[in-house]
Amino acid sequence: MSATLTARRVAPPAVRAWWRDAAGLTAWLSLLFVVALWVSGHGLQDLTTDFFTSTGRLTGLLSADLLLLQLLLMARIPWVERSYGQDELARRHRITGFTSISLLAAHLVLITLGYAAADRSGVLAEAWNLVTTYPGMLLAAAGTAALIMVAVTSVRAARRRLRYESWHLLHLYAYLGTGLALPHQLWTGADFTASPVATVFWWTAYAAAAGAVLVFRVGRPVWLNFRHRLVVEQVVPEGRGVVSVYLRGRDLDRLPVAAGQFFVWRFRSGPGWTRGKPFSLSAAPDGHRLRITAKDLGPGSRRLATLRPGTPALFEGPYGRLTGTVLKGHKVALFASGIGITPLRALLDELPYHPGEAVLFQRAGRPADLLFRREIEDLAARRGIRLHYLLGRRSRDRTSWLPAGYAPVPDEQVLRHLVPDIADHDVYVCGPDAWTAAVLDSARRAGVPADRIHAERFAW
Q1: What stretches pass through the bilayer (predicted)?
Q2: Of 129, 206, 224, 434, which is least packed with CB atoms within 10 Å of its CB?
């Protein structure tokens, strides 16, 4: 049985409503500014005389700007990350990335066609000439190859064939690709140096992206690890293939973390320790210890069971917005499936609900698979939480978050029956993608407002 952590009532970092709007507006303004730079450089006039080269310039400019925005999206900037959440940032990152790569491919084709027409040469001969004779083009070609590799391995079918750790390592080549493209843009990209305004804009954009990566992906984790120096205190089995790892360190009451968040963890325990793996806190931080819980789903989670007390732990984070900062009222309904109970277990400690204002739906195949059952039932008795266990197989005839026994009744009708005032609740959901989608759909159909539905998917 797991030891019980005494929850500390921490005020999570505030999320300002305007942060999200400001970040989105900044991104769109940067794209509009890039188009304005192209127009000021006679882009529109050149369309009639040199269509391929002019459109090639525009696609290249937009591709470069989107590439920098893509880096900023995943630079772990705290106020951006807390405003959007990692799952939405990852989705926008993928869309931005694929758009950037598509525009880059269009840029390469259009510029080659334009130059070939101007030089009256063959397309392949012109492509070879551009790569081998223009300053910085060999580096740009290598950078383009790195970016294409990242894009290919980000396609859903490819991601399914890769371990998270391998995919994450390959993804780091995006930084290399971006860096290799810079000399070409400065030496041969006339639009980057056509005016003092353009020069200032592009240098500022590159500096902002590089600075964000260095500060928030490198500097901040180094500082937090040096300050808190986490080590494994104990490893506790929780069920079939599930273990909890308790960690202790220095000044943990000063670690800026809230229940519902996750870290990317690395445990210095042998070969492969440098590969990071995301795990949520499974208990609210109490200022003395942290607890994470994971199921054996691969090498990264499997190695947790082999950790020894005293093993140093390195972390990045905290990340995620599945916290009390998004809470609109006091009533809460939490939906968890399998290992998805971990962040919600922590939230049960920390959310400011009153007795009778919280309900937990926990999904498992059988009673023995209900994680933290004794902890949760003790907490429910103390804080007045209503519990609904969703046991057994799900229906094969329809997509549902309920066990098969509920199949004749629409999901939202069952939800309204079990929680008649569900529309007055904040809904928190964590579980497999398909199951989570079914819960979200039921909540919306049951009348829960969109701003009261909170879910964060951890699929990569």
Answers
A1: 21-39, 51-74, 95-117, 137-158, 170-188, 200-219
A2: 434
Per-residue pLDDT of 256-273, as tens digits, reads: 899 999 999 999 987 778
What is the distance of C-alpha 380 from the center of its chain? 31
Both structure tokens of 454: 């909170």
The one-letter amino acid at 196 = P
Looking at residue 3, its pLDDT comes to 42
Contact 107, 143 (CB under 8 A): no
Q: Mean pLDDT across the stretch 98-113? A: 89
Which residue in the block uniquely carries the two structure tokens 């998004």?
326
- The span from the CA of 360 to the CA of 344, in Å, is 9
Q: Please tell me the distance from the alpha carbon of residue 35 to that of residue 62, in angstroms, as a whole number.
A: 8
**In the structure, what pLDDT confidence band is assigned to residue 7 with cuts at 50, 70 and 90?**
very low
Q: For residue 365, what are the contacts with CB-CB under 8 A and spacing of at least 6?
A: 391, 392, 393
β-strand partners of 86 = none
Report how far apart, in Å, the C-alpha atoms of 9 and of each of 115, 207, 215, 230, 428 are: 65, 39, 29, 21, 19
Q: Reduced to 3 states, what is the DSSP secondary structure of residue 258? A: coil
**Four-CA torsion 310, 221, 81, 15, nearest 10 degrees:** 80
Q: 214 is written with which tokens?
A: 């260095």
Q: Residue 74 above 70 pLDDT?
A: yes
* pLDDT number for residue 335: 97
Q: Residue 211: count other Cβ atoms within 10 Å of its Cβ.
A: 12
Structure confidence at residue 406 (pLDDT): 84
In 3D space, the residue among 312, 255, 301 whose CA is nearest the CA of residue 279 turns out to be 301
**DSSP H helical segments within 358-410, as ranges?**
373-383
Buried b (16+ CB within 10 A) or exposed e, 316-338: bbbbbbbbbbbbeeebbbbbbbb
**d(C-alpha 329, C-alpha 358), whole Å:** 11
Residue 365 has pLDDT above 80, yes or no: yes
